[in-house]
């Protein structure tokens, strides 16, 4: 809630605002905030990826149209609520689904359809690079996509002039500046945290592997910027593209573009060492800010950075809420078939609360929400699968608990590896994402999964769009010389309400029982992949 509407109207007209734009897997969202980090207005646009020629992708047309729709909804909300048109903004930040592969030629033409993080096609490249670098290279990283194209001898490689990620592309589109935030850069190519730049020795090794091409990797990667730096300004062409009403003026400064992992860390105030956050959406990932870099090469753990360049251990699972969303959509369809009307938010709230009435282990059932492959459990492809025995207690509460448990199951496997192999200490876990808009339910389940207290802030539902707006605001206030950690503590989150839930021992034991069943049943999921075609029609 805005504390002072009159001051906010003045802030809008004077440009004392920051805008965050996030390109998530299922939604593009815009959030405009004032200097008190309150949300003035927001807009969103739903979209879906497509499976094209073996890759998960979004078209450039959908990217642009979705951005425009989300911006238009936000700007119309400003006019409706405050009676003024949005013409100036103090700063802008872009957030996008992490990593993936977008390669362009000298003329700025996309050489191959955008390959998203969800495309698990780079196993050979990731494995070879991990061996060469002695540094874990996940399949979704940009460099793995590039090297897999090399192994595949793809023709487009002869024309590469620039490669980037989705957030880097949008930033380039709107500012004309090739730039990337260090957090997102760390998912393109390994970072040397001492220099805050790409790792030179690994670049030399990669250039040896790709010696037959006219380019070298450093020249085609975007320059790195850290939080607080300005990374370009809105061009006239960019202003016209973002705001089709042509009211928005150019010249607005941009902070470095980041991935949703980095902006999620900001949105939960999880950039200080020994803190961690869990971000829930189509995928789920935990980001643990490390006191030092990992001592071992762990294929389940990514080594990335915060937007300020501190090392982070990241556990990423490709699949989280897609299957849960599909089931809830089915329940909504049933309700509508009965002649009733209900919005999706109500369906989520009612159905998720049912899980609190369930048996601790989910009634003897198990689910695999594998819409795509899952690296940590060794799957190149996935088949959403729900399994029960005749003796299972098949009721609504148990079904909902099973879907919540399975959304976090792969994350749990990765967290256990990090704890056992590196003895990582975590003082605090914060959670964010749309799942936590329903009070306590997702938080209670996650506390059982992590077996640790989990906090959700009032801002939890805003996610990366709000986080990128905060990063943009930090850039505007950088003259204070505060670190990002201090800026968040002293200004952004000083008075933000936090709700902490401690794990319930019964839930913890129930989840442990569920995980034993889940791990044993992975062979069933593999059989589904082996014997049921992706279109389900064989």
From TrEMBL:
Entries under InterPro entries matching the protein: ATPase_NBD, FGGY_C, FGGY_Carb_Kinase, FGGY_N
Keyword field: Kinase, Transferase
GO terms of biological process kind: carbohydrate metabolic process
Highest taxon of source: Bacteria
Statement: the UniProt record of this protein carries the keyword Isomerase: no
Residues of the Carbohydrate kinase FGGY C-terminal domain: 277-474
GO MF annotation list: kinase activity
Pfam families: FGGY_C (PF02782), FGGY_N (PF00370)
Segments forming domain Carbohydrate kinase FGGY N-terminal: 19-243
Family statement drawn from the similarity comment of this UniProt entry: Belongs to the FGGY kinase family.
PANTHER family: SUGAR KINASE, XYLULOSE KINASE
Name of the molecule in the record: Sugar (Pentulose or hexulose) kinase
Record organism: Sinobaca qinghaiensis
